[in-house]
Amino acid sequence: ETGVTxxxxxxxxxxxxxxxxxxxxxxxxxxxxxxKQSAKKPLELMFVYNFKEQTENNSVPSRFSPECPNSSHLFxxxxxxQPEDSALYLCASSQGGEYxxxxxxxxxxxxxx
Amino acid sequence: AxxxxxxxxxxxxxxxxxVELKCNYSYSGxxxxxxxxxxxxQRLQLLLRHISRESIKGFTADLNKGETSFHLKKPFxxxxxxxxxxxxxxxxxxxxxxxxxxxxxxxxIIKP
Lengths: 113, 112
Description:
heterodimer; A: seven-stranded mixed sheet; 11 strands; B: three-stranded antiparallel sheet
């Protein structure tokens, strides 16, 4: 499959569960991003990785833990989430330059009960 | 602070009418600017960028440095233009990599 893929597409979890979101890009990009998209808030950048190194953490709570084992894969580990964490989580990748397009995955729709 | 402002959360126009989605930025230099679009049940994707100066799906955007604006325009709206539109510009991160500063988005509804 080409482009940016995300699994699972939908996830329902309780507040005590541990789950992980997976993102994979097949574009040869070196930068990968996690975003949170909520119905009532603007698109929120969570984490940025460049060549597997985390370069940005926009004050995200520690119950979200990213992992980037290589330039093609990005994970978001979830633990003891709150109902307000329910949202669409988007992964994106790019070459990281000023004029580079970000390519987005389809997102994981997360519901925390 | 670097910021992108999209003042309209929702814009509703009739098919065939002109469309203008507003975007203002706060940045001291001459930024590259982007418009991204998200159609219903589709992924967020690039619509157009300032540097390319191209027209995509009939949309154009002109950078006005005096007004610090990058409004998105289309002379005749079509129903398939209904979507969520985001304005964004790149900000240099700690490691010289770039991330995007996003506006809040404008939901465009084209009425038949």
